Amino acid sequence: MEEVAMQAWWESSHFAGANAAYIEPLYEAYLEDPDSVDIEWRRIFDKLPIVKPESTEQSHIKIREYFRTLAKEGNRGGGQVSDPELDAKQVKVLQLINAFRFRGHQHANLDPLGLWRQERVLDLDPSFHNLEGDDFEREFNVGSYQGGRETMPLGELIDALKQTYCGSIGAEYMHITSTEEKRWIQSRLEPKHAAVHFSKEDKLEFLAGLTAAEGLEKYLGAKFPGAKRFSLEGGDALIPMLKALIHHAGENGAKEVVVGMAHRGRLNVLVNVLGKKTGELFDEFAGKHSGGWGSGDVKYHQGFSSDFETEGGKVHLALAFNPSHLEIVNPVVLGSVRARLDRRGNPDTNTVLPITLHGDSAIAGQGVVQETFNMSQARAFKVGGTVRIVINNQVGFTTSNQEDTRSTQYCTDIAKMVQAPIFHVNADDVEAVVEVTKLALDFRNTFKRDVLIDLICYRRHGHNEADEPNATQPLMYQKIRKHPTPRKHYADRLMAEGTLEQSEVSQINNDYRESLDQGECMVKEWRPMESHSVDWTPYLGHDWDANYDSTASVERLQHLGALMCSYPEGHKLQSRVAKIYNDRLAMINGERALDWGAAETLAYATLLDEGYDIRLTGQDSGRGTFFHRHAVLHSQQDATALIPLKHLHEKQGKFEVFDSVLSEEAVLAFEYGYTTAEPRGLTIWEAQFGDFANGAQVVIDQFLSSGEQKWGRLCGLTLLLPHGYEGQGPEHSSARLERFLQLCADHNMQVCVPSTPAQVFHMLRRQVLRKMRRPLIVMSPKSLLRLPAASSSLDELSNGRFHNAIREVEDIDPKNVERVVLCSGKVYYDLAEQRRKSEINNIAIIRIEQLYPFPHECLAEIFKDYQHVKDFVWCQEEPQNQGAWYCSQHHFWTAIPKGASLVYAGREASAAPAVGYASVHIAQQQALVNDALMIDS
């Protein structure tokens, strides 16, 4: 039947005549964009012989010959001959439609101020396609254009295309490769080429939102003149936009919405969307302090949570706390969303919506934006797509112009890297803003991918309210002074169309002003907050001495160890990996001492066995950078991957290990966000080398070290940072221990340098079992991973606990000790080996395994045996100006007996973390060991 139907179509088609002049341009249009031709033509062209051109000059030769053959056969078959000129016009019409889809946004009415000077796009001119005169009255087939009819007069078609693509919305989506997604967008845009109709109630809501946005800013400006508030004025449409977005999300199944934004308009969003009481905001402006613990933060960095009533039920809103570092909050938001989705059991649902707000210069200028886009479809970081909104006030900071801030036409072009659709919209047309917002959310929910809205507005004041914008942007601000506010612009429009009277407009304005004076909640959808997320109560009020039980019987360890070493016989491992697993099984059976990988994996197994979830990400975390972990087993036969820790038993916790994208900043921020929303398990970020954490320093400085102090946000994230001086040069030796110690205060985080497998076992378990959630920074090893001396027994794992400091372990009589060497990490093994070789028995070596909080009590107990010693030395591998010496020296002095001296043994101060020459490294290492042990070089 299909062949008969195709034959019938063939006999009546244009192939049946000598129509090469028609077919060849149509085929050219197909090559440029298959969607630009009718489905019937596309089916035929799809079946044409595939030519592998050796040069572009030869690409169509065989196709043309094929067309000529078809034409001859058609003539022999008695087919109809069409008008070549009219057929050529038909092709041009399809090309014109395609041009509007591709470039209509460049002629759209997007700038409220009318200052943009868009270049004329020739493709959008009918005459460019030889369409003119009588052609405007002719009916043409509109191809895939979804205007509701198969044919339209050219003039009417052009009007519809202009209304669709050159009005208040400029749509960029033809860069997307998915035909389904492009067709979906066209199905939403093109049937609505006429004005979108909203009810009077809708329009009243939009005007109320604009009134609230303007009213709050004017109120604050009058009540607190000169105070910084980073006004939203000019971008007022953001308020009705966000409220419409939340309502629409609620109708479509959302239960939680997490928002990340910088300071511009933040106070307005807090009051007019999330429902923060205006009285509380006014108190913050007045400088009143509630007496809560911590240093606090400025009001335009504060977060907030509330519940919001929608037609689909209550939606929990969370505005993330945010420092001034632009765009860094976005991966934090996505991490929080992923944790909430994981808790709900499905990261692909629409139940949790991330919304991120960006600045026009920041989205183009900050590298973390690219990192976050790149993460959006990666397995470890998927959140089902993000609705991204750019508050594009056309002046990034104070003096910036487009030619200074980016190299692209639009600030949003970076979103094309992930083929996200981009909708530019004139912020003075609030109805278009709301319409495109709903469209964007529906795209995100349908295709689970990012979508971007470019809210093109302006900034009525300077960067802050004390700034003078005319000094650097005179023409723009002359125009702004004369330009009506968005509220007035829309109110005038509603009155002109007869929707409202002036008295009604005034009443809306007066009602909002009266509500402001009362200092209460301004959002009618606000509801008392219910519990939508995990309960943090069990983790509050605990300190470092909180009790926990880290023990596990030898039998249990052996049972779990056997399970974590099990894999199907047919799953063939690479030979080195097979040896590691065979050795690990021998360790579990007590035939060998446990190495680092075995103890670490056993820690995970015991936690999973107790029902705790574990999430581990890093650039090489599946196997471990140094080939020690191998949590993921890759078959050498079919490349399938097996993770034994996922298959201990049915009731275990969830284990996830991901090799992350090659990023530090965005990934660490994501994991921070994850742990602020999920305290119950163990979340780990592992650097490939410890000093790679440099790329995430903003996250460490602004979130990990101070998030609790500034915002009261607890976080139990663990960082594994490989650290140790093995002669690998300045970039692969130091995790910059000194930087973390410098940030330590107020018991804000833990900094540990474990030196045995048993220590890492108990340290990881302690991080979960102790009911306290603060970051754990680990200087993890490299060479110790396989050092025979750095091993532990099953008994040490079974009956021990994490020791903040380790006393002398060799047979040295404390009474004979004349010097005590304090150290941390790998250097201990160098010291111990040299001491044995030199048969020294009057020097004790004490390891400090937790440098912060400093273990004063533990050391006091250890030093009871050394009260007679007057000679103490701190030995480190790092240069003198790095490592622990400067940042922890005051702790060392406090810990040693009164009257004792303290000296330094280590590398001299250096601008670089380590030398690059192996011979120099060896000489330096031997010298610092000899110095600590008083051995003459």
From TrEMBL:
Listed cofactors: thiamine diphosphate
Family membership noted in the UniProt record: Belongs to the alpha-ketoglutarate dehydrogenase family.
Gene Ontology terms for molecular function: oxoglutarate dehydrogenase (succinyl-transferring) activity; thiamine pyrophosphate binding
GO cellular component terms attached to this protein's record: cytosol; oxoglutarate dehydrogenase complex
One of the GO biological process terms: tricarboxylic acid cycle
KW Oxidoreductase (keyword) present: yes
Name of protein: 2-oxoglutarate dehydrogenase E1 component
Originating species: Corallincola holothuriorum
Keywords: Oxidoreductase, Thiamine pyrophosphate
Keyword Oxidoreductase attached: yes
Class of the enzyme per the UniProt entry, highest EC level: oxidoreductase
Segments crossing the lipid bilayer: none
EC number: 1.2.4.2
Domain Transketolase-like pyrimidine-binding, first and last residues per copy: 594-787
CDD domains in the record: TPP_E1_OGDC_like
Protein role: E1 component of the 2-oxoglutarate dehydrogenase (OGDH) complex which catalyzes the decarboxylation of 2-oxoglutarate, the first step in the conversion of 2-oxoglutarate to succinyl-CoA and CO(2).
